[in-house]
Design brief:
Blueprint (H helix, E strand, L loop, with lengths): L1 H36 L2 E9 L4 E3 L4 E9 L4 E3 L5 E11 L3 E4 L41 E11 L3 E4 L18 H18 L1
Parallel strand pairs: 1-3, 2-4, 3-5, 4-6, 5-7, 6-8
């Protein structure tokens, strides 16, 4: 009887230990997958020429030295978050890091109204244009620098995009009373002319 009871306890401990082991291993593998999902570009030295442009190919850039000559620009990647880690950064005059959101597209135009059927009918309104969608949010950006040398200024722009313009409204139709009055006026003018 006691032996049977000890066997059950041992089985429970093995099961609990193996479950704990599986849980810890899955958390470890999950952390590796998350780390691998953040694409990184590593370089030794990146020198952007004067009035030059560097577009980040991925969301993270890890480099030893970054040299931005006068009026050079860095365009952040299209992902929502960007990260630059630099040991030494030298910035010239008028340099920029840009991570602005895209502008919204135009809304769809409304369709034109159909002409009313029958005499003495009012014209119909055209369909309203559709609203333009919102602009894209500006990028989240982290700049981690150990040593920074700034000659004049470094501007960082992370502005959200403007919303799209609404579509144009459709054209309204002419009323039938106008058409009938015009036809009557033309007929009267023809009678007078004869």
């Amino acid at each position: 009887m006691k032996r049977n009871y000890l066997t059950e306890i041992t089985k429970k401990r093995i099961t609990s230990r193996s479950l704990l082991f599986l849980l810890l291993m899955s958390l470890f593998l999950l952390s590796i997958c998350i780390t691998a999902s953040f694409a990184q570009t590593s370089m030794g030295v990146l020198k952007i020429p004067g009035k030059g442009l560097f577009t980040m190919p991925e969301d993270s850039l890890i480099i030893d030295e970054l040299i931005m000559l006068d009026s050079s620009k860095i365009i952040l990647s299209k992902s929502s978050r960007s990260f630059i880690k630099v040991r030494r950064m030298s910035v010239g005059q008028g340099c920029m890091i840009i991570g602005d959101g895209l502008h919204g597209i135009h809304g769809k135009n409304g369709s034109d109204a159909v002409h009313p059927m029958g005499l003495c009918k009012n014209g119909l309104a055209g369909e309203a244009g559709k609203p333009g969608p919102d602009g894209e949010q500006g990028r989240d950006f982290i700049l981690n620098v150990d040593q920074l040398v700034v000659s004049a200024s470094l501007s960082i722009s992370l502005i959200g995009g403007t919303g799209g313009d609404g579509g144009k409204g459709g054209k309204g139709s002419h009323g039938m009373a106008e058409a009938a009055a015009t036809a009557a006026t033309v007929a009267m003018a023809e009678e007078v002319a004869h």
